[in-house]
Amino acid sequence: MSIYNIGVKTIKGEEQTLAPYKGQVMLIVNTATKCGFAPQFKGLQKLHDDHKEEGFAVLGFPCSQFNNQELASDDEIAQSCEINFGVTFPLYAKIDVNGSNAHPLFQYLTNEARGVLGSKLIKWNFTKFLVDRDGNVVKRFSPTDDPAKIESRIQKLLSAATRA
C-alpha cells in the first residue's frame, strides 16, 4: 500500500487521496486547537511558508481523542486555525488516530514509524510524521518536538531529492 492511495477528507468535506503530494516532502501532524501545544501551529505554518516552493507541505489532521481538546465541527476548527494561528496549510476533517476507529492514514504512519519502545500508539496531540518525496515515512517526532527543530531534517530531504 502507498501513502498516496489512502483516502482522506478535507476540512470542507471533499474526498481525495494524498496523491497531489506525490513528489513532495510532507509533515503530517495530528492537531488540536485547544491543546497546550496549539502554539505550534505558528511554527508549522512558518515551515510550510518557508519551504512550500521547494516541494514541502504541512498537513494537519485534527483529533479530539486526547482530553477532547478539539472543537466540535470541522468548520469551527478551520475558522479557529485561521483566525487564532494564521493557518493556511491544508487541514483535513477531524479523525481518530488511535483505537479501532483510527484513520487508515494514521494506522499506516504508526506502523511505519513507531514511537518509544516500538509503540504504535500516538501519545498526544501534535505527533508529527516526516515523509520523503517517495512516500516513505522517515521519522516520527513527539508532541514536544518544536517545529523549528525539525527544519534541518526537512531541508536535508528537500536538498537530497533535488540533487538526485
Automatic annotation (TrEMBL):
<dbReference type="InterPro" id="IPR029759">
    <property type="entry name" value="GPX_AS"/>
</dbReference>
<comment type="similarity">
    <text>Belongs to the glutathione peroxidase family.</text>
</comment>
<keyword id="KW-0575">Peroxidase</keyword>
<protein>
    <recommendedName>
        <fullName>Glutathione peroxidase</fullName>
    </recommendedName>
</protein>
<dbReference type="InterPro" id="IPR000889">
    <property type="entry name" value="Glutathione_peroxidase"/>
</dbReference>
<dbReference type="Pfam" id="PF00255">
    <property type="entry name" value="GSHPx"/>
</dbReference>
<dbReference type="InterPro" id="IPR036249">
    <property type="entry name" value="Thioredoxin-like_sf"/>
</dbReference>
<dbReference type="GO" id="GO:0004602">
    <property type="term" value="F:glutathione peroxidase activity"/>
</dbReference>
<keyword id="KW-0560">Oxidoreductase</keyword>
